[in-house]
Specification:
- This protein is 31% helix and 34% strand.
- With 172 residues, it is of the alpha+beta class.
- The chain folds into 2 domains: 90 residues, no CATH class; 76 residues, no CATH class.
- The strands form 3 sheets. It has a 3-stranded antiparallel sheet. It has a 3-stranded antiparallel sheet with strand order 7-6-8. Strands 1-2 form a two-stranded antiparallel ribbon.
Length: 172
């Protein structure tokens, strides 16, 4: 990745520098305009899902050394009124308990003494706004959650889907 140096002396990607030079607005700048326009305290973090594009925005110290952050950009012709309504609508969506199935992995020692990872069933009840908040988990009904929770940790067959797992454990 090629790096550029902004006027303030910070290393950013070349595309980040191009976006700034082309007049794209950062999420922070848009948040500031929305706060003035609507009177609501809207943060740049709330605007991330609605951004038009993002670019690497400089180095910062992370948990595993030095990493690059992201800067989210909006086109100058973005309809700020519509954007404010979207952010406020997302805030208003209630947080409810949703139920999920996923594959977890347990470390097992084989007969030969070597480690291997066995996929196992994992059930979770999480508080979130939508089912797609956790894309790698499969949303299930509360009834399925309650009836299958006792089978948590049961080994999964290779590439087994939730419906096949449900059928298999209910036959037992």
């Amino acid at each position: 990745m090629a790096l550029a140096i902004e006027q303030i002396g910070k290393y950013v990607s070349e595309r980040h520098a191009e976006a700034s030079a082309n007049g794209l607005l950062t999420a922070g700048e848009v948040a500031k305009k929305l706060r003035k326009m609507s009177g609501e305290k809207i943060t740049a973090a709330e605007l991330k899902p609605f951004a038009d594009e993002w670019h690497h925005g400089g180095f910062y110290k992370g948990g595993s050394g030095s990493t690059m952050g992201r800067t989210y950009f909006f086109y100058p012709d973005t309809n700020l009124t519509e954007l404010a309504h979207k952010v406020l609508a997302e805030r208003a969506e209630p947080i409810v308990t949703r139920y999920f199935f996923s594959a977890g992995f347990e470390r097992q020692i084989g007969r030969d003494g070597r480690k291997r990872w066995q996929p196992v069933a994992k059930f979770e009840a999480l508080d979130c706004k939508t089912d797609d908040y956790y894309p790698k988990k499969i949303a299930i009904t509360q009834q399925d959650f309650e009836s299958l929770k006792e089978f948590e940790g049961r080994e999964l067959e290779p590439y087994e889907s939730f419906s096949h797992f449900k059928e298999r454990v209910q036959k037992c």
